[in-house]
Design goal:
Elements (H helix, E strand, L loop, with lengths): L4 H9 L9 E3 L5 E3 L1 E4 L7 H16 L4 E3 L8 H16 L8 E6 L12 H10 L9 E2 L4 E2 L2 H15 L4 E7 L2 H4 L4 H20 L3 E7 L16 H12 L5 E7 L6 H4 L3 E3 L2 E3 L1 H7 L3 E5 L13 H6 L6 H10 L4 E7 L3 H7 L10 H8 L3
Parallel strand pairs: 3-4, 3-14, 4-5, 5-8, 8-9, 9-10, 10-13, 13-14
Antiparallel strand pairs: 1-2, 6-7, 11-12
Helix pairs in contact: 2-3, 5-7, 7-8
Length: about 375
């Protein structure tokens, strides 16, 4: 079982009329809420697990059907907390499996408990000695790997943590971590191998689609070592999977302070240069945005210019989120939330239509 176009549409249609404009259809046909629930921050303890589970229920009640994880978040506890919650809501009938979009990521080494004293020794014992990867395939001081057998293990581990048969979106997590440490030719070969691994995972029914969750890669200067070209990324996917490849999503940060994803025209398609968001849309990729509140900082910073454009909203957090989810080309803004009160404030926007894209363009002088 996995999310389906029919199931996610059913979820959207079950919502109150005021909430109907909160959903967008992704390129794979799924209907996604424009506000999704992220799970990055928090202590690796039972209290935070419980807080997240309560927050997940509050998000679901307000129409959120997108939940985003990574296997390394909180040393695997974010995945496990989400998995425990999913088992509960499926058992009670609060939602069906085909109605929810569950995403996770692999790449960073996922510790199980406290970080080890020596990441190199941990990587050797867990992955090199056991044949999942070779030493030279690690980057960032043995904290990042995209080797095929390693990724297969990560997918299996995430499925187990989440208690699922199939992951709806599986991201390569900050692949630019590898590109900084190796030659462009070697990085290209590693991405090809990773995409092939993910296409095989699709064939096995372990994942439905895949993507790249990045931090700097699609926002950097074109000559920066961590820059990635979306055109080239899609070309690599086509080499592996043909025109029917399953590379469908990108995730990147975008907010009132970090506007490069929409404002910086660093991606080339043919003779034209455009922003990462525009290029992704042109290439048939769905755009998911991370850090829309800049890890909470934008919830307490006044933005008079945005307030003037969005006067009907009641808080800085709501205005910051409305700015992101109303930006043309953005599908879903992923908000890290482990507090029910924050869910109530942030997801009150689910009952407010997104703003006209022309208002956002006007802030950039693109009207």
């Amino acid at each position: 079982m996995r999310a389906t176009p029919e199931g996610t549409r059913r979820f959207a249609e079950r919502q109150p009329p005021t909430r109907q404009s909160n959903y967008r259809q992704a390129t794979d046909g799924l209907w996604l809420s424009s506000l999704g629930h992220g799970t990055y921050l928090g202590e690796a303890d039972d209290a935070t697990d419980a807080a997240y589970r309560a927050a997940f229920s509050a998000s679901l009640a307000r129409g959120c059907n997108v939940f985003d994880c990574a296997i390394n978040y909180r040393h695997q506890r974010s995945e496990r907390a989400l998995g425990a919650w999913l088992r509960e809501i499926f058992a009670t009938g609060a939602a069906a499996r085909d109605e929810l979009v569950i995403a996770t990521k692999g790449g960073f080494v996922p510790y199980d408990g406290a970080p080890p004293d020596d990441p190199r020794v941990y990587a050797y014992e867990q992955y090199i000695k056991t044949g999942y990867a070779k030493a030279h395939e690690f980057a960032a001081r043995y904290q990042h790997c995209l080797a095929p057998a390693y990724l297969e293990l990560m997918i299996q581990s995430s499925l187990r943590n989440l208690g699922l048969e199939c992951l709806d979106i599986y991201y390569l997590h900050n692949p630019e971590t590898q590109s900084i440490a190796i030659t462009a030719q070697t990085f290209r070969a590693r991405l090809l191998d990773a995409f092939e691994t993910l296409e095989f995972a699709v064939e096995r029914g372990q994942i439905a689609s895949y993507g790249l969750a990045t931090w700097t890669a699609f926002r950097a200067l074109t000559d920066a070592p961590d820059y990635l070209s979306l055109t080239e990324i899609v070309s690599l996917a086509m080499q592996v999977g043909g025109p029917a490849h399953h590379l469908r999503y990108i995730q990147l940060p975008y907010n009132l302070f970090m506007t490069e994803a929409y404002a910086f025209e660093n991606q080339q398609l043919g003779e034209a240069f455009m922003s990462a968001i525009e290029a992704a849309n042109a290439l048939g990729l769905t755009v998911m945005v991370s850090a829309p509140l800049m890890q909470g900082r934008l919830a307490v910073i006044d933005s008079p210019r945005v307030a003037a454009v969005l006067p009907e909203l009641h808080s800085e957090a709501q205005r910051a989120l409305q700015f992101v989810r109303s930006t043309p080309g953005v599908c879903t803004a992923l908000i890290g939330m482990k507090d029910v009160a924050h869910v109530a404030e942030n997801l009150a926007l689910a009952d407010v239509p997104p703003s006209d894209g022309a208002l956002i363009r006007a802030l950039y002088g693109k009207a």
